[in-house]
Amino acid sequence: MSDRFSTHTQLFDLSGKRALVTGGTSGIGVMMARGLLQAGAEVVISSRKADGCRRAQEELSRFGEVTAIPADLSRHDECLRLAEEVTADGEPLHILVNNAGATWGAPLEEFPDSAWDRALDLNLKAPFWLVQALLPTLRAAGTADDPARVINVGSIDGLRVPLLPTYSYSSSKAALHHLTRVLARELGPQHITVNAVAPGPFPSKMMAATLDQFGEQITATTPLRRVGRDDDMAGVAVFLASRAGSYVTGATIPVDGGIFTCASN
Fold it and tell me: Which Gene Ontology molecular-function terms are recorded (predicted)?
C-alpha cells in the first residue's frame, strides 16, 4: 500500500524538470521563478529588456540553474523565436508559466485604442502563441501520471469588476481565465494540465502606484489583512507544477487573501 503514496518531499519536488517563466524578471514572475528553482527545477526566464534579464538571472542564480532570454512577447514572431531558443538544445520543457503582462488605466472617455492592443497582445495572445509553439515539447514531456503543466497568470480583476478604470486589462484577464478552461479540456488527453492563478495585490512594479495610493485601504478590507508575499506566489506555482497538483486542470485559483473569494456582494 505504501507504493500508492508519495512522501512530502516527493509531492513538491521538481528535480529534473525544466520551466519557462515569461515576465520572469520582476514582480510575480520572479516570485514564481524563485519557487520553481528552490523546488529543484531548471528555469528559463524571459522579459523584454536584456538588462532586466541579466539582473534577474544574477539574482535568481543563487537558488538554482537559471538562464535568461530577452523577448518582446507582444509580437508573434518574438514568441516563435523564444520557443525556438528554449527548445534549440533538445531539452524537454515540462512547465510553461505565462506571466508576462501589461496594464493601462484611463477614464472611459479618454481610453485609447493602443491600450487595447497592448493588453490583448501581451495578456491574451502571447500565452496562446506560446502554447501553440511549445506544444510539441510539452506533449513529449508529459505522461499520464506526471503531465506537463501550463500556468497562466490572470488576475482577480478578471473575476470581479475592477476598482480602477483598467478596461482592457481586466477584460484580457477574464478572457485568459476562459482560454485556460478551453485549453485544459483540449490538452488534458495529451497529458498537459492548464490552470490559471488570479493574484490579488502583491508588491510589484505594476501594482506600485495602486499600493502607494490605496495600500492601507486594501490591507484594511482584505480578509487576511495584508497584501501578498513572495512565498504566497512561489507556493502556488510549485503546487501546480508538482506531483501535488497533477490532478488539477482547468482551474482558476485566486491568490488574493480573500478579496474575491470572500466578497460580500
Answer: oxidoreductase activity
